[in-house]
Amino acid sequence: MELTHLTGLPIVSKDELDSSVLIVDDIVDSGATRQQFKGFDFACIHIKPHSECESVTFCVYDHVDEWIQYWWEEEEKPAEDAVRRLIEMIGDNPNRQGLLETPARVIKAYDKLFEGYSVRTQDIIKKFDEKYNEMVLLKNIEIYSMCEHHMLPIIGKAHVAYIPSNGKVIGLSKLARITDMYARRLQIQERLGDQITQCLMDELDPVGAACVIEARHLCVQMRGVEKQNSVMVTSSLKGIFLEDSTKGLAARNEFMRLTQN
User: Fold this and answer.
1) What tens digit of pLDDT does each residue of 66-118 get?
2) Which residue of the set 150, 198, 214, 243 is catalytic?
3) Alpha carbon distance 51, 32 (integer Å)
4) Residue-range domain boundaries for the chain
5) Which residues are within 8 A (CB) of 108 and not within 5 positions of it... i.e. 6 or more apart?
6) Are the beta carbons of 142 and 184 closer than 8 angstroms?
7) Which residue is catalytic, options 35, 88, 142, 149?
């Protein structure tokens, strides 16, 4: 309405659309609205970098990745409103007493569950000079993550190791913090382990890095095949841990032996 007031252009209904109409949207995210009006001139304020859609005629800010809240949404709290709509979709009443504060609680919980998106590697890693060249292993790191396919919990433990080079080690707690940084996101277990070991390789340039994750996936236990006792085990090995040399086999065997005890 404000755009119509500022430009003097009329608002038309869907039944009145023709080639002279400009479609205006606040943000192109999934691209669904843009696809719906494919072929029309299209203007928006923001485009998310992951959006796969036909190009737009005019955009103010391209490829903005953070959460966006517009001034007209200030009182509406759109994230909480989305939770209310989900409650309605599953068949309950978001206005009943027990659910009145649930949307706010869910958003607050999500701040914790997905805090990994706001953590940067440089904020958590501190390196020390130490002449140590044997394996460093932190076992049984608790993992709480969320399956990216169903947004249901992944609960388990990780064993993370590296072999230093150039006299560089990191504080022991940093192995747990790196694990949390990647776990506190929408994930699949295979990628989680690989991100942990790749981070160690990039930051420390060690002889090698390894990670084994054992986890229960509630998307498998609560729905689908409903296998209550299933545990997924994945490994990510880099550097010497992947080599078929005598040293590589020795490093791999030592890691596997230590994580199984």
Assistant:
1) 767 676 665 557 889 899 999 999 999 998 999 999 999 999 999 999 999 99
2) 150
3) 10
4) 2-62, 76-113, 119-260
5) none
6) no
7) 149
- Say what the pLDDT of residue 56 is: 72
- The answer to whether domain 76-113 and domain 119-260 are alike in fold is no
CATH superfamily of domain region 76-113: GTP cyclohydrolase I, N-terminal domain (1.10.286.10)
Which of 101, 142, 148, 190 is catalytic? The answer is: 148
d(CA 200, CA 178): 9
Active site residue 189: yes
Overall pTM surpassing 0.85 (yes/no): no
Residues 159, 195, 199, 217: which is the catalytic one? 217
Is residue 188 within 8 A of residue 147, CB to CB? The reply is yes
Residue of 44, 147, 199, 211 marked active site: 147
46 in active site: no
Digit-coded pLDDT (tens) for 199-232 = 999 999 999 999 999 999 999 999 999 999 999 9
The reply to whether 149 belongs to the active site is: yes
Q: Residue type for 71, please?
A: W
Instruction: Kindly tell me if the per-residue pLDDT of 234 is higher than 70.
Output: yes
pLDDT in tens, 170-184: 998 999 999 999 999
* 191 touches 199 (CB < 8 A): no
Q: What is the CATH number of domain 119-260?
A: 3.30.1130.10
Q: How many C-beta neighbours within 10 Å does residue 25 have?
A: 16
Residues of the chain above pLDDT 70, percent? 90
- Told to judge if 150 belongs to the known catalytic residues of this protein, a careful annotator would answer yes
Structure tokens at 77: 């709290």
Catalytic residue selected from 189, 195, 203, 211: 189
User: Which listed residue (59, 80, 214, 219) is catalytic?
Assistant: 219
